[in-house]
Every structure is written in structure tokens, then in C-alpha cells.
């Protein structure tokens, strides 16, 4: 092969190799250009969403009054046996006293406005909570065992479906209990009922309200 042709051949081969090894720029719709999914951060055993914190915290959120226990008919559809996250649950619709200790977490703006198991819209600034088996609706006193702060909440949702957590509190309830930044806290939970004179009782003082569809 003549020197000139050999030189042209080498140049052609080099250009082909360079073209094959060039990395293509990812397009806006290609998987490689997609933004990474925001991961859940596990903090003290609670699933704590970084973007679940309130952007604009209402003034005097600590002054939001506790839920006031009332005699309400149970919501039949919200108290049926169910399964979630590979676990089975059977809500207790009796009027038995309930008292337990465990970890509570909270849920915020990610769920704000969504329907709860009760059918009501979740309000992160109301004094509510989710529990796997307490009747819907019912009421519970919750005490932060670290600082002694207590609140009364209305159970209107199901959850949390995690073996290390016993209850999910609203943003407002967790704020009053003082563990928003920690994500979870060890608490004591006790079911309460309405009593005479605006007081609360740890045992029912009248016949149960029954159920409603």
C-alpha cells in the first residue's frame, strides 16, 4: 500500500475509534438525566420525610387546644379487619380501656389534605392521630415520656404500619409534645372518654355510642 493511502487509512480508523468511544449527552427524558428519588431518612426508628416539615408554621401552634372527647358513633368501614405492609390488623371496637407505651412518630404536609381512614381530610394542624387498632373515632391521651408534655388527640386514621412505632401523630400534636425535630419519641398512650363537667375519664362512663355506616 502506498504511503499516502496508508496514512489516509490510519486517519479514517482513528476517527471511527474516537466516535465510538465518545459518551453521548443524556437527554432530558432519558433515565440517566432523571433527578434521583428523594429517599426517606430513618431517624430514631421513625420514617422522617425531609420535605414533611411545614413551610409556614402557624403563629402560636402550641396554643392549639387539645381534642375534646365526645361520644361519637363508630365508622363501620374504618373498623373492619384489614392488612397492610404484610401485617394483619383487627380494630378493637369494644369499650375496653387501653394503655401502652412505645414510639410515636408524626406525619405532616406530605399528607395534608388527603383523606384519612375515617373519610375526613387530614389536617396537620388539628389534634389528631393514626393508630392501627384503636376505634375510629376515639380519643387518647399521649404523654412524651422524655419531657412530660401531654396532649389529647382524636383517632381518625390508621397507621403507622411499622413494627417499631405505635402511633402517628399530627404535626400539631407532635409539636406540642416537643419532638418535631427528632421525628419520633417514646410515649405513653391511654384511651380516654368524655366525662361530666368537661373532664376526661380513662374508662367509659356511659353506654357505647354504637356503630354507623
Approximate strand percentage: 25-35%
Beginning-to-end CA distance, first to last residue:
93 Å
CATH class: Mainly Beta
Q: Give me the oligomer status.
A: single chain
**Please, how many domains?**
1
Query: Any idea what the shape is?
Result: globular
Per DSSP E runs of 2 or more residues, the count of β-strands stands at 13
Number of helices: 2
**Low-pLDDT windows of residues:** 15-51, 208-213
Function: Lytic transglycosylase with a strong preference for naked glycan strands that lack stem peptides.
Keywords: Cell membrane, Cell wall biogenesis/degradation, Lipoprotein, Lyase, Membrane, Palmitate, Signal
Main location: membrane
Membrane topology: Lipid-anchor
Structure, explained:
This protein has 213 residues and is an alpha+beta fold. The protein has a single domain, classed as RlpA-like domain (Barwin-like endoglucanases, Beta Barrel), CATH 2.40.40. 12% of the residues lie in helices and 28% in strands. The protein contains 2 helices and 13 strands. The chain has helices at residues 3-21, 171-177, and strands spanning 41-43, 46-48, 74-75, 82-84, 87-89, 99-107, 128-130, 138-144, 150-157, 167-170, 184-194, 200-201, 211-212. The longest helix has 19 residues, at 3-21.
